[in-house]
Amino acid sequence: MEECPIARIVVISNRVAVPKARGVAGAQGGLAGALNSALKEHGGIWFGWSGAACEEFTGQIDLQRHDGVTTATIDLPEQDVEEYYNGYANSTLWPLFHYRLDLTEYERQTGMGYERVNERLAGSVGPLIEDGDLVWVHDYHLLPLGERLRARGIDNRIGFFLHTPWPPTNLFVSLPFHERLVRTMLAYDLIGFQTETWLESFLHYCRKELGAEVDEASGRISFEGHETLARAYPIGIDFDHVTAQANTEAAREAEERLRDSARGRTAAIGVDRLDYSKGLPERIDGIGRFFDTYPDRVRDLVYIQIAPTSREDVDSYQDIRNMLEQKTGQINGARSEFDIAPIRYVNRGYSLAELCGFYRASKIALVTPLRDGMNLVAKEYIAVQDPEDPGVLVLSRFAGAAQQMDEAVLVNPHSPDDLARAIHTALDMPLEERKRRYEALIKTVRDENIQHWTKTFVSDLEA
Ligand code: G6P
């Protein structure tokens, strides 16, 4: 029998992570690794913005091949970066999708820039797409891209995955032209969400606001003669890659340094992009409440917050940075002794290997976003724990990850009392209970990994 050739994949995302950048801290490393391995297996291209600004748009594509994967990137003019990336994507959609109407800006100009850039990206990537290719578009920067490709006559299978939450209908309708945006999304054949909650909100919107025919059980949406399938595909980590990183010399060194510097205190760790969705000031308030309630325990606990800056041209990101610095300073001022400070706040990123070392040296991880599509730090932390002496994951019930990881200590990140109670529980948790929770968590993290995620999405798109 003749073997059926597998389809090429064309991945399209705002940022393109080339293989040589692998190992860079956090979620992006995992996603980049998984997409790179899917691209290696299927062949194909990864297309997106180069991250660089130019004077005028030329549409010139920079094609590169690294380690068996072809990347294709284009530069965008300054005005596009401002309106599309800093503007509509990160000052409108990002806060809205994280339920932050108070931070959501509605500017016609940036909305137009967003549409213009999606059109430009479609125009550039269109000629690279061949018959039979599977096209896989990622994230909120590119919601209308599929429809722009259809307008150019591309009738390939096109799938879309949203890495963020999808907000409830009554928040989403505050977006001017919300209907126009979602109509463009229904040009996709398959739409993936991180969790059932975000999926349900999307289906609810399609039924209530667009009047689409929606089959809730299968996720089938019929609208104006086209069918789209919407499903939840919880993203995982590249388990083998992460655990291999945890066994490197760099990881061992980082682990040792953190342990030595904690000088007998239990280390608790948080690793987050400096983003208001991550609940950082709220977390620091919770830590403050813990020390207020148990002042003696300042000799038992040190909290390390690693928070590389992010999207620094957007005002709300500068505000969150200032607020965090102030709160950390206040608690350290009030609670430090001449030889110890309870909080270490580090404004930079580390390699995945170093982070794995920090995770192993920390007996508690605080992953307490106010809202998060998934959160892969929670999964990385569990992946590298010592099975004989595992640490405790304190996890926000509002992170997508909580829907798979309910054996973590779940918290309401808005409540300093709840956070303080969770830290206390984690600090004193007996070994047996830690092991029991870990064993349940590691199973999900190991089995529902990124390869599983890529495979299920791609095979549904193919089917
Ligand atoms: C989130 C988004 C990604 C984004 C990443 C980093 O995880 O879902 O699409 O790439 O943040 O943000 P940045 O703005 O630096 O790309």
Quick synopsis:
The protein is α/β, with parallel strands linked by helices and about 475 residues long. Helices cover about 45% and strands about 20% of the residues.
Mind explaining what this structure looks like?
By secondary structure, the protein is α/β, with parallel strands linked by helices. It folds into two domains: 9-236 and 450-462, Glycogen Phosphorylase B (Rossmann fold), CATH 3.40.50.2000; 239-447, Rossmann fold (3-Layer(aba) Sandwich), CATH 3.40.50. The chain is 44% helix and 19% strand. The chain contains 16 helices and 16 strands. The strands form two sheets. The chain has a ten-stranded mixed sheet with strand order 3-4-2-1-5-6-7-10-9-8, sandwiched between helices. A six-stranded parallel sheet has the order 13-12-11-14-15-16, with helices on both faces. Strand 3 (62-66) and strand 4 (69-77) form a beta hairpin. The protein starts with 8 loop residues before the first strand and ends with a helix.
